[in-house]
Structures are given as C-alpha cells and as structure tokens.
Automatic annotation (TrEMBL):
CDD domains for the chain: MopB_CT_Nitrate-R-NapA-like (cd02791), MopB_Nitrate-R-NapA-like (cd02754)
Cellular component GO terms held in the UniProt record: membrane
Molecular function GO labels: 4 iron, 4 sulfur cluster binding; metal ion binding; molybdopterin cofactor binding; oxidoreductase activity
Keyword tRNA processing: no
UniProt domain 4Fe-4S Mo/W bis-MGD-type: residue ranges: 2-70
Gene3D superfamilies xref list: 2.40.40.20, 3.40.50.740, ADC-like domains, Dimethylsulfoxide Reductase, domain 2
Protein name in UniProt: Molybdopterin oxidoreductase
Keyword Ribosomal protein: no
UniProt similarity note: Belongs to the prokaryotic molybdopterin-containing oxidoreductase family. NasA/NapA/NarB subfamily.
C-alpha cells in the first residue's frame, strides 16, 4: 500500500484517530526506527472528532512495536515441560476441536472457558459470545475488563437501568467544574486530559478537583487535591452530599420527578457530618467544604473516574455513590455535566456492547434476564432454554476452577494474565495445572506463553479490519493496512473456523469481519446501545460515528445526518432512564473501606497503577527504545517519613511482602505519596525484571456486585535489602527521577 490510512490508536480508551503512512514515500527517505528497521509513520488524524489530531507518546510510537518479537506460526506441545514444536493451523485447530468435544462429553459445557480482552475488536468479541454462549452452551466467557471496567458497568446498570457512559468529550470543554476521582488522567488518558486542561487554563472560573491518594501529574494542576486515604471515596461522596443537603443546594423537583430511593439515601448521608468525614478520609475540613462548595456552586459538574474507583471491593458502591451526587443536583443529561467513566482499553466499550463478560449478552443484555437470553437464542437460531440465565465464571474464578479441576479447557486471547491477575503467584500455579490451555497472542514470548499447550499467532491491529468504540461511544473502523507476519490470523477468523469445525457450519460462515459486524449490529436494534445503522462501509465513508445510531437513520451526509449526530451526543437528555419506570435509582451505601486494611504485621497500604509511557505488561512498549528510556526500571514510591523509619535511601532496594508474596523494588522517596501508603507500577512481569511483580502482592477479593478485584490496595510490610540495586534492576531513569522531584515540589 502506498496511500495513508486512517485508523484508531490501539492503546487506551480515549480512542485517538491516527493517520498512518507507509515507510517509503515517493521523494522522501524511508522512515526507520532507531535500529534502522523501516516503520510506518504515525500522526494524529485531524478529522477524528475525539482527538482532533492529537496523540500521546504511545500512539505516536506504536508502529515501532509491530514487527518485533512476533509469534508467527501455531506451536504445540503435550505438556508444559516440553518445548514447543511448530505445527500447521490444521493440526492446531483439530487438536482444539478434539479437546472441546472431549470436555463436552466428560465434563459438560461448563468445563469450557475463554478469557478474552478489551483489546479484541468488536467482531472478535461478538464471535466469541456466539460460539461460547450461543453454541457451546456455557457462559464461561470473561475478559480482562473484569479487572478494569466491570464496576462501572454494574454501577451504570444499577443506577440508570443500563450500561453506557452518558457524556461526550465536548463536555470537557463545557464544564464549570470537573471532579477527577481515582484517575491519573494526565498519564493514562492524556488527550482527554489535554482537552480538559486547555479549557481549565483558559477559564479562571472553571475548577478542577482531583481525588487521589497520590499527588500525580493530574493532581499537580488541580485547584484542589484531596489526597484521601485509599478506600475512603464513599465517605467523601457521602460527606459532600451531607453538605449539599445542609445547604439546600439540591434539585428537589428532579429528585421527585425522575428518581427513586432518595429517602433511604438521605438517611445514609445524615451519618456523614464533615468533621467525621474529614477524619476518615484524612483530609482537611476546609478542603472538604471547598470541594462541596465547588460542586454546589457549579451549573455543570462533570466527574471523570477510572481505576481508583473501579478496582475496589466496593467498586460498584463507589460508582453509584458518585452518581448519587449527579442525581441529587441534576448534573446529568446536559452539556458539560455527568458521570463519565474513562474506559481503559481501546475497545473495552465494544466488549460491553458485544456482551463480552460472563454476566452479559450482546446489545447491553444481561445474562440473568430470561427475556434477554430468549432474544439471543432466537437471534442465533438456538433452541429455547439453550442459554442459561446464570452468569459464567469470572477470570479469577476460572483460575480457581483450574485448581479444582472443574474446567478442562481454557482459551486465553489478547491478555497476559500471568502478569495482570491479582495474587499472580497463585494464578501462575493454577495455570500450570491447566490440562489444556490455548493462548492466542500477537507476541512471543509473553509471561503467559509459558503456560500454554497451544500457541496461536494473532494478527493484531493494523493487520486485520475491525471496529472499536471509545469512551465517548464513538465507533471507528480500524482497517488492515499491512500484512500479518507469518501465518498470523485475526481472532474472529480463528473463532469462526473452530465454530465451523465443530459442525456449526452455517452459523459461522463469515467471509469477512464486515459480515460479522453486519450480523452483530442487528441484535443491537432497539437496545440502549443501538447501532444497527452502522456498517463497515458507512464507517469507511463517513468516518467515526457515535452511538446510538439506529437503523432508521438515513445515510445522506446532509443536514439530517448532522442533526442526528447532534442528538446522540449525550444520553438521558430527556431525563428518562433505562429502568422500567424511567427513573434513575439512588443508592444508599455506607462506606466499608478496604478489604485488607493495614495492621501491625502489614502496616502499609500498597497501591498499584500505571506510568505515562508503558502499556500494561510491555509486550509492545517494552520493545520501544524511547519508552524504555523514559521508564527503564520498576520502583516503589515511599514517603520520606516512612523511608527514614526504615533507613531506606533513594534507590536502595526495598523488599515488599504481603500475605501472598514478595517483590523487590528500588526506592523512590517522594512526598507525592502519603505517609503509610506506597505505590508500585504494574508494568514489570517476570520477563522484564526479577521479582518486581506488583501482583505477587495484590489480593483477589472483589466487589460483590461487579466481581472486580481490589487491585488498588493491599496490606504490605517493607524491609530494606542490603544488596546493591544495580545488580537487580539498574538505576531509575533521569526522567523518573525528575518526575519524582517535580512531584515532591509542593
Ligand atoms: N500510560 C498508560 N495509559 C493507560 C494504560 C497503561 O497501561 N499505560 N492502560 C489503560 C487502562 S486499561 C486503564 S484501566 C487506564 C487506567 O487509568 P487510571 O485509573 O488513571 O490509572 P491507574 O494508575 O491504574 O490508577 C489511577 C489512580 O488511582 C489512584 N487510587 C488508588 N487507590 C485509590 C482510592 O482508594 N481512591 C481513589 N480516589 N484513588 C485511588 C492511584 O493512586 C492512581 O493514581 O489507563 C489506560 N491508559
Ligand atoms: N496490580 C495491578 N494489576 C492490574 C491493574 C492494575 O491497575 N494494577 N490493572 C488491570 C487492568 S485495568 C487491565 S486492563 C489489565 C491489563 O492486563 P493485560 O490484558 O494482561 O495486559 P496487556 O499487556 O495489555 O496484554 C494484552 C495482550 O494482548 C496481546 N495482543 C494485542 N493485540 C492483540 C490482538 O489483536 N489479538 C490477540 N490475540 N492478542 C493481542 C498483546 O501482545 C498482549 O500480550 O491489567 C489489570 N491488572
Ligand atoms: S491518549 Fe490513548 S488513544 Fe490517544 S494516542 Fe495516547 S494511548 Fe493512544
Ligand atoms: Mo484496564
């Protein structure tokens, strides 16, 4: 190909448009990376509505990662002690089909399971649901979104009657006050942050409040940083609500007409007077009052959140308690306002739309709703009763089922659970016991490939055509613009082929991902996430489009189209919610705090998260020199007071122990972290550093409603180790040190 292509960045859920150009352009020197390999040029797509031409370092360097360490051919082995041998696709697929049939006979459908990813495209997700839930008869499909977005899904669904972020990015530029809670937006959703920050800088009256135990890059520029004690968000929200009630700055008309359950909520918040809340959250009383005042005095309040809220044993309650504040002040369904969950992965949204978790079905249907099961049975031409209205196993439960022998077949795709799951040593042990694991990934090796019996090479972004949805419900077509390496194939095509080989020939007869998408969109018709009017062709011709986008909407790009695009920017503008009576639900929750609070044996709270340059388990970013230079080594952030207590100096090696495991990190002493709390990045699995796995320490205790584990907090003890750090991880980079200094500056 010699022309440029427009696509979407395959990293975070901001979903920036990219324009890519082939390495060789007439009359120009070939574009190469620092090692001399020709690479595609990447720049921001100015016509993309979400990003308007902007990109961050990850998007800008993505093409450097595409050709390194690729898995090119199917590989197989009979046991994990053997080395892999190259096999044909035919042999690999036959082995998979044979195993599925054996497990169906010996253990039944629930002996089968698949663990997928928000890095699937929507077509991959849909085919996996059709195969597992529709045709194999098990709801054991879960995705890494369980570790990421499931509390937001549960929160939206319970408060509004269905999933779906109701806001759009334009709200970032229309708000009077933005609350950023448990989100390091500046590093993790940089282009969303830039849009908000620009607006904030230009308008002195616009306020930015950051709620995060760490003084992050995001917190640095806030008007108010509430460095709450980890796990006290509900205290804070109920405390703000208490003050709003006291001041009478609530919208009683909206509460009466459009919501339910306010009295129960009012009773709960009466127990959260400001003095108590400030004490529980370990913040100043006047800061709490200032936060409440900002909320009360602003016409339009926007809240943005991500993992500091979702990854919690009370994640759903946190989300719903935040939504309460929006309901109580009618900060919803209007420009510049609303509760806006920032999605993590590039297509976590598409996954939700396509039913890609163990408790949902395509088209924002819920698996425990028999009517929804019946609709999908009919859609897929399956006999009544074939989809059981019972949720399947979550990712963590799949690991438990490997321990007990309850599953006999595990298919992992587009995720690296041997790094990213909580209590990862136990996870690794469980994976070691799996009788049959298929692992489908773009790269080799990854930490998870060590536990596979069959490796399937995946064509990844740029090598396959499919659709992804970003945080603001904008759907973008990502076309194939380069050839997959070796024999790599798109995920949807592999799943469809297995479906056909299992005998479901007609149901899985798809010749292209466009056909898969065309089938999928039909089952969204009439649903809250209706995009039955979308097709690959339309997205190719018209560019990215936002849902809802029903079939009835005509195609011309004239005035009518523009008008419709305007009306689907925000959900709930008519103040009718997706509950049976159209009213939103207040939630009455008391704060419970952390599942594993610190105690005398494990006196510190460990929190974990991300750095600007790296993406998760580094399968891509670990091979990009510029990013490695930015963050070459893991580290642990410790407050100077705690460091002094343990005689820990800058860069001395610290051993961190929890009840589950141990890890070691060079110390980074900084006032950016509160005393009593320490932070480590999640990016270093066993392939990238010795003993620096954040998840060796974390626990799997989950929110009872969303089943999302509390990856953001566990109790640990610290000890200084006396061997020199250089031998383990090398020195931290200039940039990380500078960042640390900048953050320490008060
Ligand atoms: N650079 C980069 N960007 C990414 C990713 C990446 O790997 N790298 N991954 C993407 C994905 S999948 C995701 S999910 C997002 C995650 O995006 P974020 O959620 O913004 O990132 P994290 O660093 O995981 O956590 C955010 C913050 O939560 C805070 N926190 C911890 N405990 C609490 C608490 O109890 N309450 C509150 N209020 N805050 C708390 C932490 O101190 C941390 O600063 O990023 C996406 N973007
Ligand atoms: N301690 C701690 N742990 C965490 C978190 C945390 O904050 N703290 N965050 C959690 C969250 S929010 C998330 S989202 C997870 C992320 O954790 P993972 O999903 O395990 O991390 P990734 O490195 O993104 O893994 C994606 C894999 O998919 C592969 N891949 C890329 N594209 C394709 C494709 O098209 N097809 C296939 N088959 N493979 C592809 C990549 O090579 C890579 O191996 O981590 C979770 N774990
Ligand atoms: S902000 Fe997210 S989507 Fe945009 S370029 Fe960066 S990683 Fe990609
Ligand atoms: Mo995530």
């Amino acid at each position: 190909m010699t022309n440029s292509a427009k696509t979407l960045c395959p990293y975070c859920g901001v979903g920036c448009g990219l324009e890519v150009l082939p390495p060789a352009q007439p009359g120009k020197p070939t574009n190469r990376d620092s090692q001399g390999t020709p690479i595609w040029q990447v720049r921001g797509d100015r016509s993309h509505p979400s990003s308007q031409g902007k990109v961050c370092v990850k998007g800008a360097t993505v093409s450097e990662s595409l050709d390194k360490n690729r898995l090119k051919y199917p590989m197989m082995r009979d046991s994990l002690d053997e080395s892999f041998r190259r096999v044909s696709w035919d042999e690999a697929l036959e082995a998979i089909v044979h195993r599925i049939q054996t497990v169906l006979q010996t253990q039944g459908p629930d002996g089968l399971s698949m663990y997928g990813s928000g890095q699937f495209q929507t077509e991959d997700y849909y085919i996996a649901q059709k195969l597992f839930k529709g045709f194999l008869g098990t709801n054991n499909f879960d995705a890494n979104s369980r570790l990421c977005m499931s509390s937001a899904v549960a929160g939206y669904t319970q408060s509004f009657g269905s999933d779906g972020p109701p806001c759009c990015y334009e709200d970032l530029e229309l708000t009077d006050c933005a609350f950023l809670i448990g989100t390091n937006t500046a590093e993790c959703h940089p282009i969303v942050f830039n849009r908000l920050r620009q607006h904030h800088k230009q308008n002195r009256k616009v306020k930015m409040v950051v709620v995060d135990p760490r003084r992050t890059k995001t917190a640095e520029v806030a008007d108010l940083h509430l460095a709450i004690k980890p796990g006290t968000d509900i205290d804070l929200f109920n405390g703000i609500a208490h003050l709003l009630m006291r001041w009478g700055t609530i919208d009683t008309y909206f509460i009466d007409e459009c919501t339910q359950n306010f009295p129960a909520y009012a009773e709960v918040i009466s127990h959260y007077p400001p003095e108590l809340v400030a004490r529980n959250c370990e913040i100043r009383l006047d800061d709490l009052e200032t936060a409440a005042k900002y909320w009360a005095k602003s016409e339009r309040v926007l809240s943005l959140w991500s993992m500091g809220m979702n990854q919690s044993s009370e994640g759903t309650a946190k989300v719903r308690t935040l939504i309460n504040l929006h309901l109580m002040t009618r900060n919803i369904g209007k420009p510049g306002a609303g509760p806006f969950s920032l999605t993590g992965q590039p297509n976590a949204m598409g996954g939700r739309e396509a039913g890609g978790l163990a408790n949902i079905l395509p088209g924002y249907r819920v698996i425990t709703n028999p009517q929804h099961c019946a609709e999908m049975e009919q859609f897929w031409g399956r006999p009544p009763g074939s989809i059981r209205p019972q949720r399947g196993l979550t990712g963590v439960e799949m690991m438990r089922a490997l321990e007990t022998g309850d599953i006999g077949f595990l298919w992992i795709a587009a995720t690296n659970p041997a790094v990213s799951m909580p209590d990862v040593k136990r996870t690794q042990e469980a994976l070691r016991r799996s009788p049959f694991t298929v692992y489908q990934d773009a790269y080799y090796p990854t930490e998870t490939s060590e536990y596979a019996h069959i490796l399937l090479p995946a064509a990844q972004w740029s090598e396959k055509t499919g659709v992804m949805t970003n945080s603001e419900r904008v759907v973008t077509l990502c076309p194939e613009f380069r050839d997959p390496p070796g024999e790599a194939r798109p995920d949807w095509a592999v799943l469809a082929e297995v479906g056909r080989r299992l005998g479901f020939v007609e149901a899985f007869r798809f010749n292209s991902s466009a056909e898969v998408f065309a089938e999928f969109v039909q089952c969204t018709e009439g649903r809250p996430c209706d995009y039955s009017g979308l097709s690959h062709d339309r997205l190719r011709q018209q560019g990215p489009l936002q849902w809802p986008y029903p079939y009835q909407w005509p195609s011309p790009e004239g005035e009518e189209e523009k008008e419709q695009n305007r009306t689907n920017k925000r959900l709930y503008t008519d103040l009718r919610f997706n509950t049976p009576d159209g009213r939103a639900r207040f939630a009455a929750y008391h704060s419970k705090g952390l599942a594993e609070p610190p105690d005398t044996d494990y006196p510190f709270i460990l929190t974990t998260g991300r750095l600007y340059g790296h993406w998760h388990t580094q399968t891509r970013t670990g091979h990009i020199p510029k990013i490695r230079k930015m963050h070459p080594t893991p580290f642990i952030e410790i407050h100077p007071r705690d460091a002094a207590r343990f005689k820990i100096e800058e860069n001395s090696l610290v051993e961190v122990r929890s009840r589950r495991g141990v890890a070691r990190f060079p110390a980074m002493i900084t006032e950016a972290i509160a005393p009593g709390t320490v932070f480590v990045p999640m990016h270093w699995g066993a392939l990238w550093a010795d003993d620096a796995e954040a998840n060796a320490l974390t626990h799997p205790i989950a929110c009872p409603s969303s089943l999302q584990p509390e990856l953001k907090a566990c109790a640990v003890q610290l000890e200084k180790v006396t061997i020199p750090t250089g031998s383990l991880h090398g020195e931290p980079s200039e940039l990380d040190l500078k960042r640390n200094q900048a953050l320490t500056r008060k």
